[in-house]
Amino acid sequence: MRIIPYKHADRPRKRRTLDQQQVVKTALALLDEVGLEELTMRRLAERLDVKAASLYRHVRNKDELLILLGDEISGEIPLPRGSGGWKEQLTEIALNVRRGLLAHRDAARVLAITPPFGPRRLHHIEAVLRVLRSAGFSRKDAARAAYHANNFVTEFAADEARFAAFAGAPGSNRRKVFAQARQVFKTLPRDEYPTLVELAEDLTADDQDGLFQFGIDLLLRGLEVLAKRG
Amino acid sequence: MRIIPYKHADRPRKRRTLDQQQVVKTALALLDEVGLEELTMRRLAERLDVKAASLYRHVRNKDELLILLGDEISGEIPLPRGSGGWKEQLTEIALNVRRGLLAHRDAARVLAITPPFGPRRLHHIEAVLRVLRSAGFSRKDAARAAYHANNFVTEFAADEARFAAFAGAPGSNRRKVFAQARQVFKTLPRDEYPTLVELAEDLTADDQDGLFQFGIDLLLRGLEVLAKRG
DNA sequence: AGTTTATTGCGAACATCGTAGCGGAATCAA
DNA sequence: TTGATTCCGCTACGATGTTCGCAATAAACT
Q1: Number of domains present in the structure of chain B
Q2: Partner B contacted by A219 (CB < 8 A)
Q3: Is the minimum distance from the CB of B52 to strand D below 7 Å?
Q4: pLDDT higher than threshold 50 for residue B7
Q5: Looking at the structure, do residues B125 and B153 belong to the same domain, yes or no?
Q6: Cβ(A69)–Cβ(A23) below 8 Å
Q7: Does residue A6 belong to any structural domain of this protein?
Q8: How far: A44 CA to C23 C1' (Å)?
Q9: Mean pLDDT in chain A?
Q10: pLDDT tens per residue, range B99-137
Q11: Looking at the structure, do residues A124 and A217 belong to the same domain, yes or no?
Q12: Residues B31 and B141 in one domain
């Protein structure tokens, strides 16, 4: 018996041609499921029913993919409405961005390791700058403050994501890891780390919101002082 | 003719036995020369006249090596003298840490991706906490403020390191990259990013110190306000 | 000194990763 | 229909981190 291999029987008539949009969107979906370290070109290709090398037709390399991915994520974060005082506006942006970043697994880490080149991402920076300028800050101060504000939010969220990854590794959950950490701190030599030991019990797993807000308040109060002088 | 392989002719009499200290120190030296992405187990082993597999006798895996490396780096950063007001002390720590991190290539990036488990690293956190506590902050406020302060410094330096890596890739230097970036910003659609375009010319390559100090001031003023209230 | 035990390094492999370069299918011109 | 051209997809390559069984050395003990 002869097996007659007929060509491309199950191949779609018209070659299903991939585009960048599709690649990036699938990458985001994959990121949500497997996280940053497991987001690999091969796995992504598999998702698209294609071999890894094919992706390079639509993306220069993995770094570029991550940049695009970062922009995609930024695109999902709502821009501020632009009402209220400048402090309220900045707070709103910060909360929005953090929420948006936590909405996708490891999203903040992607932004953290990626230069802010994408247009949607630049829109958010623009928004912060605009608020600061309209609040009366000088160009230089506004630029500097915007840098720090953006950094603060993304790095804070990135840290949360890193911790989540760390705590989600084997069968460990968030609270358990914190309990362990507290234990470690308590067994530290008290004469070398007196304050650290003392503060061990203030470590709590569920006050990330409060910690974040505390940071925002610090920044805003600092800016306020600056505004009153300038 | 028969080749008689005589055993271990050029092997040193006493087997030079490796220890963790040596591995970590060599890793730091290697990091300085090749940077984080090129710091590989194989290359490190080569440095030690050893094959890669041998390293795993002294280090559980690469992650642990990075943690140890982070601690090694922290160990080189001087602890504060402890004189002056709390703001001066915190400033001193911040400047010290940043300087210490910039002293080794990609050092800050190592700290940024590594949990603060090492003893020497904990000492610095302890120092910050102590200053805050002695300044009269509550335990909770001190803990939160210390978290943000540490994050601020390391992430700022990590960002600098990332940029340095980016700018050091092909024959590009710092200033040139900034010039390019400014160019990019200027060619952005003015109607979409008015403020960003306006601020393009305020981007300058050599004001990292000022930018850092600005951030410190923001934090300190924020803390000052908090202290006065309560 | 001789014997046993523990430690250290190594060779070779494995799985996995990002990606260059090429062969061949799809499309178009004639 | 044929020939040329475009362009997509894949095989293959060189690295990476890491495991395991074995050999050789150092340390401990008798």
Answers
A1: 2
A2: yes
A3: yes
A4: no
A5: yes
A6: no
A7: no
A8: 24
A9: 86
A10: 999 999 999 999 999 999 889 999 999 999 999 999 999
A11: yes
A12: no
In angstroms, the separation between the Cα of residue A126 and the nearest Cα of chain B is: 6
Q: Which residues of chain A have pLDDT under 70?
A: 1-16, 167-180, 203-206, 230
**In angstroms, rounded to a whole number, what is the distance separating the alpha carbons of residues B158 and B104?**
11
Q: What is the pLDDT of residues A187-221, one digit of tens each?
A: 788 889 999 988 877 766 668 999 999 999 999 99
Please check whether residues A210 and A121 belong to one and the same domain.
yes
For position B35, which CATH number holds? Answer: 1.10.10.60
Q: Is A199 within 8 Å of B147 when comparing Cβ atoms?
A: no
* One domain, residues B89 and B201: yes
Whose CA is nearest the C1' atom of nucleotide D7? A57
| pLDDT attached to residue B45 | 96
Q: How far does B26 lie from chain A, in Å, by closest CA?
A: 26
Reported as a single tens digit per residue, the pLDDT across B44-86 is 999 999 999 999 999 999 999 999 999 999 999 999 987 899 9
Domain identity same for B129 and B216: yes
The verdict on residue B6 lying in a domain is no
CATH number of the domain residue B139 falls in = 1.10.357.10
Clarify whether residues B98 and B173 are in a common domain: yes
Q: Residue B190: pLDDT above 50?
A: yes
Domain boundaries, position A21: 12-59
Cβ-Cβ contacts under 8 Å, A223 against chain B: 218
For residue B74, is it within any domain?
no
Which pLDDT score, from 0 to 100, does residue A161 have?
93
B139 in A contact zone (CB under 8 Å): yes
